[in-house]
Specification:
The chain is mostly helical and 495 residues long. Helix content is 79%, strand content 0%. The longest helix is centred in the first third of the chain and has 40 residues. The protein starts with a helix and ends in a 15-residue tail after the last helix. The N terminus is likely disordered.
Amino acid sequence: MTTDAATTKAGGVLAATCLSTLVVNANTSAVSILLPAISEDTGTSVDTLQWAVTGYSLVGAAVIVTSGALGDVFGRKRIFQLGLLLFVASCILIALANTGEMVIVGRLIQGAAGATILACGLSLLSVANEGEAQLRAVSLWGAAAAVGAAAGPLLGGVLVDVTGWQGLFWIDAGVAVACMLLTFATVAESRDESRSRSIDYGGAVLVALTLSPILLATSKGSDWGWFSVATLGCFAVAVVAGFAFVAVEKRVRVPLLDLALLRNRTLVGATIAILIGAGTINALMYLLSLYFQNPAALGFTPFQAGLATLPATVGLVVVAPLVPKMASKIGGRQVVSLGFLITGVGFAVVGLTQADWRYVAFLLPLIAIAVGMGMSNGPASSAATAAVAPEDVGAASGVSNMARYVGAAVFTAVAATVNAAVIVNRTDAGHTNGEALASGLAAASWVMAGLSFAGVLLGVVMKRHREARGTLDDAAASAAAPLHTLPTSATPQPR
C-alpha cells in the first residue's frame, strides 16, 4: 500500500471511529432529558423509565470487556460493524416504540451496542496508526467522546421541541448507518493472532447476574419493604452470583477480570475513584433533568433543561484538559482528593435545595461539581494505566471502563430510589408537590455528597505512581476520562 493510500485508510478509520463515539456518547447523555417526554407519550412513569438509563449501563458493564475480546478474536472490524448494526436496530426500535417497555428493551440493546462500538472502535484506531500518529488519533477520539457527551443534553432538548423525542434516535440511526458505510469502505480487518481464542462469556453473564438483582432491589425495595423476601432474595442472588464470578475468573484461561490486579492498591483506588465519579455525575444528570422539567419545580422545556445542565457537562470538558499539568506539579493523588472535596461541597449545596429556589441558585454548585469531577477523573484514569506493567495496561483499562458503567447504573438507581421515596413521604405528610420534589432532590444530593467526601480518602489509598507530563495528548485523555480510559504519557509502553 502506498503512503498516500495508507494515509487515506487511516483517515477513514479516524473519521468512522470518532463519528461513532461522538454519536454514542451524545445519545447516552441525552436520554435523561428525554424521559419526561417519553413518559408523557407512552404513559409509563418516569420511575419505570429509569431502567432506560440504568439498564443501558448495566448491559454496558457486562459487555464492554467481552466485546473487545470478541474483536481481538473474530475481527475488530466485524464486531465493530455488528455493534453499529445493533445500534441502528435499537434506535429504530426506540423511535417506533409506543410503550415504555419497548423503550427500555431498546435501551438494553443499545447498551450492548454502545459498549461494543467504543471498545472495538478504539482498538481499530490503535492498530491503524503507530507512534505519534496513534497518540494523536486516540486523543482526537477522546475529544470526540467528550464533545458528544457535553452536547447530548442540549441536542436532546432541541430535538424534543422540534421533532419530538423520537427525532434523536432517527438521527442517530442515520449517523450510525453512515459510519457503517465508511467503515466498510475504509477500514481493514484486524485480529490479535497471539491472543487465546478463549472468551469469558460466563464472566460477562455473571456480571449482569450480580448487578441486575442489586438494581432491582434498590429500585423496588421501598415498595416491597427492605426486609421483604423479594428484596432479601435479590441481594442473596447478587451475592451468590458475585462469588460465582470470582470462582469462574480464577479458572478461565483469559478472565474478564484478572483478580491478581486487585492486589495493586493504586489501580484499586483509581478504579473506585472512577466508579464514584461516573456514578455521581450520571445520578446528578438524571435527577436534574427531571427536576428542571417538572412543572412543580422549575418547569423548564426540554431545551431549557438541556441548556441548564451545560455548566455541569461543558464545565467538566473545559476543566479536565487543564488538570494533567496541575497533577504533574502537585501529584495526581492530591488532585483526586481535592477534586472529590470540591465535588462533595457542590453536592452538599444542592442538598440544601428549597422549593422556592430558581435556577441561579443551582449555578455555582453545578460549576463546583463540574470542576471537582474534572479534577478527580483525569488523574484517576491516568493512574489506572500508569500503575501496572505494560502487559497489564489493557486489562487495567478494561477494569476502569467497566467501573464507569457499574457506577452509572448503581448510583443512578440509588439516587432515583432515594428521590422517589422522599417525594412520596413528603407528599403523604401533606407537603406541596414543589416542597416534596425539592426534598427528594436534596436527599439524593446528600447521598452523592457523602460518596464524594468518601472519595477524598482515595488519595491516601493510592500509592505513588508515574505521573502524566501534561502534554496535549494527556489533556485530551483527561477530557475523555469521565467516559473512557485512554493511555497517557504516564502509561508504560511495551518494550
